[in-house]
Design a protein that fits this description.
It contains 4 helices and 3 strands, in the order E-E-H-H-E-H-H. It is of the alpha+beta class. The chain has a 3-stranded antiparallel β-sheet with strand order 2-1-3, with helices on both faces.
Length: 86
């Protein structure tokens, strides 16, 4: 994984739900999610697993992609994740 690089990510929570976010430092952000210091949504759904990540040149691109992914139905989010597993 790249560090200190804007990225959009999808986490799979322990209850099977998906969480999408963006960050400049994926390692720190993932640690925050798993220690209950990340997003309110993930606090009660730990541990979380990183299942998809996309890197960008700017934070604006990462934020835009986060918004686009959040608009997708669950089925399409799962398709993104499945592509990574192939």
């Amino acid at each position: 994984m790249k560090t200190n690089c804007p990225c959009t990510y999808i986490l799979k929570c322990c209850d099977g739900s998906l969480y999408t976010g963006w960050t400049n430092d994926i390692n720190t952000r993932l640690s925050a999610h798993n220690t209950g210091k990340g997003a309110k949504y993930t606090r009660a759904r730990t541990p979380v697993e990183l299942v998809h990540i996309e890197y960008f040149d700017t934070r604006e691109e990462a934020m835009s992609r986060e918004h686009a992914i959040k608009q997708l139905p669950r089925k399409k989010k799962l398709a993104l994740i499945q592509k990574d597993e192939e």
